[in-house]
Amino acid sequence: MSVAVPTSTSSSDQPAPPAAPRATRQWRFHLFVALMALALGGYVVSRLWRDPFQHAVAENVGDQAFFEWVLSYGVHLLHHGGDPFFTDLMNVPDGVNLAANTSITVYAILFAPLTMLAGPQVTFLAVLTLNLAGSAYAWFLFLSRFVTANRAAAALAGFFCGFAPGFVAHANGHLNWTSGWIAPLVLWRLLKMRDTAHWLRNGLILGVTLAVGFSIAAEGLFFTALAGGVFVIAWSLSPVNRAEARAALPKFAAGLGLTAVVAGALLAYPLYMHFAGPQTFKGTGFNQRHYSEDLLSFFAFSDRSLASWAGLGNDLAANKTEETSFFGLPLLVLLAVSLVTLWRSADDRRRATLRALMTVGGLFFLISLGPRLRVADTETDIPLLYALLQHVPLFDAALPARYALVLVGVFGVILAMATDRAFGAAAPQPWFAMGLVVALVPIFPVPLHYRERAPEPRFIADGTWERYVGDGGVISALPFAINVAADGQRWQAYTMARAGKEFRIPDGYFLGPDADGSEGKGRIGALPRATDWLFLRAALYGYLADLDNADRATARADFQHWGVEALFLPDVITGPEGPLFRSAVEITATDLLGPPERVDDVLVWRIRPGVDPADR
Questions:
Q1: pLDDT tens string 459-470
Q2: Which residue from 510, 81, 443, 90 is spatially nearest to 281, judged by alpha carbons?
Q3: How many helices and strands (H and E) does the chain possess?
Q4: Mind telling me which residue stretches traverse the membrane in this protein (predicted)?
Q5: HEC sequence for 400-447
Q6: Exposed e or buried b for every residue in 99-137, given b needs 16+ CB within 10 A?
Q7: Residues in CB range of 566: below 8 A, 6 or more apart
Q8: Percent of the chain with pLDDT over 70
Q9: Neighbours of 351 (CB within 10 A)
C-alpha cells in the first residue's frame, strides 16, 4: 500500500544496478541523518545532561521520578526475579499494577546494565535522547521507503515528525510518548502486509512489533493502530483502489489474523493484568475534559520553541508537557496550500492517498478536542465526537489532547510529498522554500528547562538504612512519596539500581483504583490515609496541625497497616516547584513521634508497628 513510491516494478522497468559509489553516498546520507538526529536530541536534553543526578525536567519532576523507578525495577527483575507487571515494592500492602501504568518494560530490561553501571538518572536521559533521535530517523526511513524517493524531503519531514512541538513537550518526563519511532515502525509493517506472497512472515513480524510497542507505549500503540486501520479502510474504499484491495483482502486478513494470534500470545498475561489483574482500574486518574485541546492551540506555539522564546508563548494547554498540537499558524497555512497544490496535480491514485490522509487527520483532530469545544481556554456547550467515545473501553483510558499527536505523522507525510514536488520538479518553487523557513523556524525546539532536586542522602547511598529495617522491610522518607513529593520514590529506585538489599515503601507515584473499587475509576497514588496526608500537608503548605492522642492512635493504626519500621527526613526535600517546607515536616514528626535520631544527613524515627507513636 505505497503512499507515493511503488513497492515493485516490472522487470522491463527495472533500472540498471546502481554503482558502488552511489550505494556509498546513500549510506553516508543515512549516517548523516542519524548523527544529526542524535545531535538535535542531545541539544534538546542538554541542560539535563549537565548534571544528571540533580537536574530534573522542570515541568514534570514527578514523572521523571516514576520512570527512574521503573528503570530501576528492571535491575530488580534481573537480580531478584519477580513479576514485570505487578509489584509490592510500592503501595504496601496492596501493591501496584504496573501493566495498568506506563511501565516501559522493554526499556527497563534492555537498559538494566546501564542502570546498574551509571544509575537510573543517566539511563533516563539516555533513553530520552535516543527516543527523540530515533523517532526522527525512523520517520526518515519510513518516508523514504513509502512516500518519496527524495532523501532530502524525507529527512526534512522526518526531523519534523521526530521533533514536532508535541513530542518535544512530552520530553518533559515521558519516556513512553517520546518513543515516536514506534509509529513509523508499526505503519511500515502494516503496509508491508500488502505483500501477499509473504503474508505469513509479515503477520508474524507485525505481531512481535505490536508486543514490543505495547510494552513501551501502549497508549501510543493504540493511536497508531487506530490511525493505520482508518487509513487502510479509507484507502481501500476509494474506487481506484477497490479492485486491488479486494484481491489482497484474503491474504491481508490472514496476515492480520496471524498478527492477532502472535501478539495475543505474547501479550496474554500483560493484557490480563491490564484489564483484570489486581489493583487495576478503568479510565484514568486525570480529568479528560481538562486534558482536551483548545481549538486555538493548533495555531499557537509551544513553550519549548523559538517562537515562545521570542515572546509568542501561551497558556492554552493543561500543562507544558501536554502541548500536543501547537503547530503554529504559518505551518498550518503552508500545509493547507501544499495539500491544495498536491490535490490539483495528483492522479486518481494519489488523490485516494490524500483523501485517506485527510480522513485520518480530520478524525483525530475532532477526537483531540475532547467532549466539549474549548476556545480561548473557555469551554462551550457544543458537544463533540469524544462525548460519544469517552466511556468506550480503550478510549476512556486515553487523554483526548494526545490524539493530536497523530496529526504529526499526517502532516509529516504531506510535508514530504510537498517538498518532493517543490524541489523535485524541473522548475523548483522558491515560494515553497520561503514557506518552509517561515513555518519551521518558529517551531524549532529549544532545550528543556531543568530544576534542581534534592541530592540522594548519604543515609541511603551508603546503605546506613539497612540498620533500621530488614531486607524487604518497609521504610519511608517524609513526606510519603507521591507525584508532588517524589523524593522518597527516587531513594528507593536508586537502592534497587544497586542490585543489593532493598526496602519497600508505602504510597508512591502511580495510577491505581480509587476508593470506590466497584466503579473501577483511576486515581493518582495510593488511597490517602490520615497520617500520610498529615506529613504531605506540612510539606506542601507548611501547615502545622494541633496533634493529640487521637491522632497518635490513628498514626499507630496506619503504621501497622503499612508495616513501617522507620521514617527518615533528609536535610532537603523537593517538590515539583523546588524545596518544600522541611521545617514544618520536622516539627510535625517530632510532635507526633518524639525526638528523632540524627544519622548521617537525615533524621530517623524508629517505629514499632502497633506501639509507636505512644500516647502522651
A1: 999 999 999 998
A2: 510
A3: 23, 14
A4: 27-45, 98-118, 124-142, 149-168, 174-191, 198-216, 222-240, 252-272, 325-343, 352-370, 401-419, 431-450
A5: HHHHHHHHHHHHHHHHHHHHHHHHHCCCCCHHHHHHHHHHHCCCCECC
A6: bbbbbbbbbbbebbebbbebbbbbbbbbbbbbbbbbbbb
A7: 465, 468, 469, 475, 476, 604, 605, 606, 607
A8: 95
A9: 16
Q: How confident is the model at residue 426 (pLDDT cuts 50, 70, 90)?
A: low
Return the SS3 of 571. coil
Residues 178-199 as b or e (16 or more Cβ within 10 Å = b): bbbbbbbbbbbbbbbbbbeeeb
CA-wise closest residue to 69 among 215, 218, 173 = 173
In the prediction, which pLDDT does 4 show? Answer: 47
Q: With 0-12 CB in 10 A as exposed, 13-18 as middle and 19+ as buried, what is 437?
A: exposed
Q: Report which residue type is found at 302.
A: S
Cα distance between residue 29 and residue 25, in whole Å = 6
Q: Would you call 191 helix, strand, or coil by DSSP?
A: helix
Cell 504559518 sits on residue: 330
Side by side, the strands of the sheet bearing 597-599 are 474-477, 564-570, 602-606, 597-599
CB atoms within 10 A of CB 246: 10
- HSE of 144, CA atoms in CB hemisphere, 13 A: 19
* Cα 528 from Cα 176, distance rounded (Å): 27
347-370 average pLDDT score: 96
Query: Which residues have CB under 8 Å from 282's CB, separation 6+?
Result: 393, 396, 397, 519, 520, 521, 522
Query: H or E segment at 553?
Result: helix 549-562
The DSSP code for 73 is H
Are 504 and 127 in contact, with CB atoms under 8 Å apart?
A: no
- Identify which of 248, 246, 244 has the alpha carbon closest to the alpha carbon of residue 256: 248
Contact 281, 522 (CB under 8 A): yes
- Indicate whether 9 pLDDT > 50: no
Q: At what angle do helices 406-424 and 430-440 cross, to 10 degrees?
A: 150
Query: Minimal CA–CA distance to 449: which of 50, 38, 133, 160?
Result: 50
Per-residue pLDDT tens for 156-195?
999 999 999 999 999 999 999 999 999 999 999 999 998 8
Residues 605 and 596: beta-carbon distance below 8 Å: yes
Q: Across the strands, what pairs with 452?
A: 55
Show the cell assigned to 478: 517524609
Task: Tell me the C-alpha to C-alpha distance, in Å, between residue 456 and each of 112, 308, 452.
Answer: 20, 34, 12
Average pLDDT over residues 235-250: 93
Write the DSSP string, 243-306.
HHHHHHHHHHHHHHHHHHHHHHHHTHHHHHHHHHSTT--BS-SS-TTTTS--GGGGGSB-TTBH
Q: What single-letter DSSP state applies at residue 463?
A: S
Convert the pLDDT of each residue in 74-96 to its tens digit.
999 999 999 999 999 999 999 99
**First-to-last C-alpha distance (Å) of the chain:** 77
Q: How far is the C-alpha of 104 from the C-alpha of 98, rounded, in Å?
A: 9
Contacts of 421 (CB under 8 A, 6+ apart): 341, 342, 345
DSSP SS3 for 572: coil
128-146, pLDDT tens digit by residue?
A: 999 999 999 999 999 999 9
Give the Cα separation of 425 and 363 in Å (integer): 32
- Contact at 8 Å (CB) between 580 and 540? yes
Local structure of residue 328 (DSSP, 8 states): -
